[in-house]
Amino acid sequence: MMDYNDFRGITTLMVMIAFLGVVWWAYSSRRKQRFDNAANSIFEDEEKQLHDASVKEVDK
Questions:
Q1: Where are the transmembrane segments (predicted)?
Q2: Domain map of the chain by residue range?
Q3: 25: Cβ–Cβ under 8 A, 6 or more apart, which residues?
Q4: pTM (whole model) above 0.70
Q5: Residues 1-57 pLDDT 10s
Q6: Residue 13 pLDDT
Q7: By C-alpha distance, which of 7, 9, 11 is closest to 19?
Q8: 2-35 burial, b for 16+ CB within 10 Å, e for fewer?
């Protein structure tokens, strides 16, 4: 018969397996390009805004 400590042990094991699965998914080489693009997208937006602002300044 299972007691509360067995339940806690099984729950801990399931959470550890889920955590390792998320880590494996996040660091998978198939997703590297997608994550790099997402990380750098903020800089691309700022670059475009600066370019548009400088074009407007030149057109004045």
A1: 6-27
A2: 4-59
A3: 31
A4: no
A5: 889 999 999 999 999 999 999 999 999 989 999 988 888 888 877 777 777 777 777
A6: 98
A7: 11
A8: eeeeeeeeeeeeeeeeeeeeeeeeeeeeeeeeee
